[in-house]
Amino acid sequence: MARVVVVGSANMDMVVRAPRIPRPGETIVGLQFVMVAGGKGANQAVAAARLGAHVTFVARVGNDLFGAHNLEGYQREGIDCRFIVRDEESPSGVALIAVDAEGQNAIVVAPGANMRLTPEDVARAEEEFARADVVLAQLEVPIPAVTRTAELAHKHGKRMILNPAPAPRHPLPPELLQHVDILTPNETEAQALCNAPDYASPESMAQALRALGVPVVIITLGDQGVLLQDAAGMQRMPAHPVQAIDTTAAGDAFAGALAVALAEGESVEEAVQFAQRAAALSVTRLGAQPSLPYRAEVDDFSGLI
Ligand code: RIB
Questions:
Q1: What is the Cα gyration radius of the chain?
Q2: Is 252 designated active site?
């Protein structure tokens, strides 16, 4: 069984579907409300588990109702939760999410316990890094914890995937970037990472990110597909056309699936195709974790919904 270690955030998502995203200062009447498990780290851990990997999730949740509820959910998914800390000082992370009629979203996160994840929390799971095939992290927890993740992945010779979401406000430290094997930003995150202007092309940003020393750069472009740049060159891979209900966690479905396919020994190109199928399925459903597909769905997905 492929083994994946995921280090990252865990949130409870409060989601309202609305005709559109409200403007600053505006109140609008929405449609449906759902409260579901989310958080980029947890979403990627659940995505990988549903796709058949053994997953160890390293995280912090509050010692509160949301933390207990989410922890039970991860256990039901078969995720190894031994390295999830129940934080006594901070509440669980919460995300407020508005989803518009086109499935686009706007998210505000109150990170709570996520921001107290330490390098020591990560190091406690070192035995799992040694057994892993692939290690996966995002940027919704403190950078020192992400850096320790990359260092441990490197120490044990494991492939390190960094999904640099949300977009960082400062350049990433070289001690982190030097141990990243695969970087999977969306366009906004790529702009932030290479300090590029709004009009910069994905191709120029992929080149700039490779120049920072990352061997494989995969820029996700929503319904425009994916731009893959590695030592072999650059290629655009088109997205599967689907009816978008909610794009929340599409990037997480992609990252989790990419990790599983690579852990199973697929090539980067094959892993991207697998991840694109998982992401396409996820946007056809509302909510973060409820939208993440199971293995049989991704294997059977023929392209159109
Ligand atoms: O990537 C989607 C996630 O971002 C949501 O589940 C929300 O919790 C925020 O972390």
A1: 18
A2: yes
